Amino acid sequence: MKKLVCFICASILVFGLCVPAMADPVSEGLDIKASSAILMDAKSGRVLYEKDADAKRYPASTTKVLTALLAVENLDPDKIITISETAVDIDRDGSNMGLLKGEEISVRDLLYGLLVDSANDAANALGEEVSGSQEAFAQTMNQRAAELGATGSHFANPHGYHDDNHYTTARDLCLIAREAMKYDLFSQIVSTTKYQIPPTNKYTEVREFSNHNALINPAMGRTYLYSAATGIKTGYTSKAGKCLVASAEKDGAKYVCVVLDAPQTDGINYSFADPITLFDYAFKNYKMQTLSNTEEILATKEVRWASGSEQAVLSSKEPLRALLPVNYEKEKLETALSLPDTVTAPIKAGETVGYLTYSYDGYELGKVELVNKKDIGISYIRMIFGTILSWILSAWVMVPLGIIVVIILILRWNELRRQKKLRERRKNASRRNFYR
């Protein structure tokens, strides 16, 4: 019987460890058709919804989000580069912008070709410029993805044309897109609906691009046009299915979502319909809320050697707003105060003294600098006496002083013993003399 009970307990423990954390009860009711999907707060990285977000999927042209991120991070957008023969050596059934060997074109125009027109040849050209070759660039892609925590991915090329060894996850793509959206150039390009590239030394006509993202481009029809949408990148191959990395912003709230292998059934393209469902859910159930302002007193701290007031009064240097449920549970909102052990005068008004970190339900929302609200001068009398006292009480003084005291006590004790023996000898001598 005892063995049976132990077996049942162990089984329950193992099962508990294998069951994933429960999602938001409200989001569990969402009917998302894509094989994998995720919705993330762009500011904090908090996941608000996920469905098989760690399953390996083929990303198709959503790969170009990472290619663009590396180009933005490593290249001057105004740099003119010369297109190589290997850059234009692509499968012509894939999307391309018709680059020609020896053509001279700016990094900026290549980025627009990459993200607006989804050009595979632009991806090759940018990858070669960043790392020297497409093979070396694939290694750079994998390294950068790992740095962002996208550890479930492996990239084999800059463009996402199908390769069995080229895969990612919805979570990984979301992390990559969230990082890319921090760059103004990237976010500007992915929100562009139409773009023109003027003639170059090899191409005599104007190239005109139209964004394939129906969430932002009315030229794709108004069925999926979404007023809050701000990007990002579509993707499709027969093996990857329809994919979309999307972003939206409203009332200060910013979201990134990814759907992979979304079906198109009953006339509905779920690579666009699913993100709309996710964004509608987010905007309805979450909003930006103020956690601290610059006037509120958040903490106090005693100041050593202060003249007059002995406490620094601390407030937030900048207001902090964070995404929270519309009706959030205030008892789940926690703060962690970080202050130095000792604060010493003088301190100027506005000087940073420490930090206060906010978290909700175990998830970090943000950190504010705590600054002193008024000048605190120094009392030189307190400083001098305090320094002297500290010096006296320091180990450099107390240890030798203690040793001296011990030596004195030992010497005194020995002297007392010597005097005691001397008195005893005199007393004994007196007794002997008496009896004589």
Describe the structure.
This protein has 436 residues and is of the alpha+beta class. It has 2 domains: 22-285, Beta-lactamase (3-Layer(aba) Sandwich); 293-380, Peptidoglycan synthesis regulatory factor (PBP3), Domain 2. 35% of the residues lie in helices and 26% in strands. It is built from 10 helices and 19 strands. The protein has a 6-stranded mixed β-sheet, with no helix packed on it. Strand 18 and strand 19 form a beta hairpin. Helix 2 crosses helix 4. The protein is elongated and about 135 Å long. The protein starts with a helix and ends with a helix.
Summed up:
The chain is 35% helix and 26% strand. The protein is an alpha+beta fold and 436 residues long. It folds into 2 domains: 22-285, 3-Layer(aba) Sandwich (Beta-lactamase); 293-380, D-Ala-D-Ala carboxypeptidase, C-terminal domain (Peptidoglycan synthesis regulatory factor (PBP3), Domain 2, Sandwich), CATH 2.60.410.
Helix and strand layout, with pairings?
Elements: H1 2-18, E1 36-41, E2 47-51, H2 64-74, E3 80-82, E4 104-106, H3 107-115, H4 120-131, H5 134-147, H6 170-180, H7 184-190, E5 194-197, E6 207-210, E7 229-237, E8 241-250, E9 253-262, E10 264-265, E11 268-269, H8 270-285, E12 286-292, E13 297-304, E14 311-316, E15 320-325, E16 333-338, E17 343-344, E18 352-360, E19 363-372, H9 380-393, H10 395-435
Parallel strand pairs: 13-17
Antiparallel strand pairs: 1-2, 1-9, 3-4, 5-6, 7-8, 8-9, 10-11, 12-15, 13-14, 14-19, 16-18, 18-19
Helix pairs in contact: 2-3, 2-4, 2-6, 3-4, 4-5
